[in-house]
């Protein structure tokens, strides 16, 4: 496929090993202890010659990736698909079939080996697609894989002709944010393209991808008994993917009581961990209802698209303190990946919201610049030193830099009229910005 | 300047689940002065950011990691090279 010609709205990668983000940056990501371990990573847009590669690809790993090219779903298999990996492959096939793509292509160019049940899965998928008048084709298998496929009666599925990819339309060029009126949102452009009528809607694609995230999170996060994703759509929070009935009930109880970690994470864009509901007091109405469902621990990680909280990834356990540090990291990783998928898809970010976001960014810059000015004046710092001071103090106080900057600028107001801000140096006791000269 | 492998920033960006566009917006929000195109060049190591740009970018990423329940994994200039 030509670079730059991919529609990557729904692209996701799966690796045969999970990687935890380490607290210290100097270390390489290392495999987690969980098994079967899978990590999900969104792909990069390939627009500017950026290589489309998974972040880490150890030789032992397999990966499955899903691209959507017009009405065609392209699944790329890489590495060695062993028995545990075949299960994930089957899940992916099921999801793609359920989503109604008019055709499916399996790209095997980088596949080294395929465990036996894999060919049965492919045969089964081909039959199911054929029932619905759809088709499956296989591209570029190695000679060995080709033999295996032919031996299993799948030879006729192998086709090597190029198919016509749709031109990629999405572009995350942020410069366009401020002046988006001239450009249609990518999703609209795509949906209104001639011949695109067979495309599933954006919401369908997103939901299918989120179902995969839920499935992967449930099978890889230690202690997870159930996982759901709730999303704000049209101002309403709703569960769009759930691994089981209990988690659906848990979410429903949160919507009913108007409180709970999922609601807080979705609306505040922060992470909420209730390690033990027995001693939880933040959600007095919801907590007993969750306990009645047998739930003892909940981890809700925010999903953020374009800087706006849009939902949460919720994981529950029947055991208190079920989520170890590594599991929390893994949950964070899944939430980050789901957020990137949502950002790519432009979920719930209308032009108005994006413009609002841009305005908020401008206000934030202004506040930070003012605070830097105050510190430069008070402490004789340079601009960069003032930034460093703000940053260090904000970290020490667990605040955002913007919140810290607001405090600093507020500290000048009570005794100083706006026009006389130059004389604020004398009343710096409101904040404790230390000297941070280089 | 910080001795980091070429695409270290971009790895953090991916781990944080941010598009390049969103990261630039966050960087801009904190007072970053470089264009989106320059910032991308920082991400891939094609351009070396000034110490200040390095810290603004690192902080934009770190604030995102905090939102996700993490710590401050992205090093600042002073972590890499004492000032």
Task: Please specify the SSE layout and strand pairing.
The complex is a heterodimer of chains A (438) and B (83).
Chain A: E1 12-15, E2 19-20, E3 30-31, E4 39-42, E5 62-69, E6 72-81, H1 83-98, E7 103-114, H2 116-131, E8 135-139, H3 143-151, H4 175-178, H5 186-191, H6 202-220, E9 226-233, E10 236-242, H7 245-257, H8 261-268, E11 272-274, H9 286-292, E12 297-305, E13 308-317, H10 325-345, H11 351-379, H12 383-396, H13 401-410
Parallel strand pairs in A: 6-7, 7-8
Antiparallel strand pairs in A: 1-4, 1-5, 2-3, 5-6, 9-10, 9-13, 11-12, 12-13
Chain B: H1 8-15, H2 20-29, H3 36-43, H4 51-67, H5 77-80
Helix pairs in contact in B: 2-4
What distance separates the N and C termini of chain A? 51 Å
Tell me the count of domains of chain B.
Answer: 1
Contiguous uncertain segments of 5+ residues of chain A: 1-60, 161-200, 416-432
Mean pLDDT of chain A: 71
Order of helices and strands of chain A: EEEEEEHEHEHHHHEEHHEHEEHHHH
**Annotation, overall tally of beta strands of chain B:** 0
CATH architecture of the largest domain in chain A: 2-Layer Sandwich
Helix content of chain A: 25-40%
Which CATH class of the largest domain in chain A? Alpha Beta
A few lines on this structure:
The complex is a heterodimer of chains A (438) and B (83). Chain A is of the alpha+beta class and 438 residues long.
Task: Give your account of this protein's structure.
The complex is a heterodimer of chains A (438) and B (83). Chain A is α+β, with helices and mostly antiparallel strands. Chain A has three domains: 12-162, Transcription Regulator spoIIAA (2-Layer Sandwich); 202-345, GAF domain (Beta-Lactamase, 2-Layer Sandwich); 360-430, Arc Repressor Mutant, subunit A (Orthogonal Bundle). Chain A is built from 13 helices and 13 strands. A six-stranded mixed sheet of chain A has the order 4-1-5-6-7-8. A five-stranded antiparallel sheet of chain A has the order 10-9-13-12-11, sandwiched between helices. In chain A, strands 2-3 form a two-stranded antiparallel sheet. The model of chain A is unreliable at 1-60, 161-200 and 416-432 (pLDDT under 50). Helix content of chain B is 57%, strand content 0%. Chain B contains five helices and no strands. The longest helix of chain B is centred in the C-terminal third of the chain and has 17 residues, at 51-67. At the A-B interface, strand 12, helix 10, helix 11 and helix 12 of A face helix 1, helix 2 and helix 4 of B.
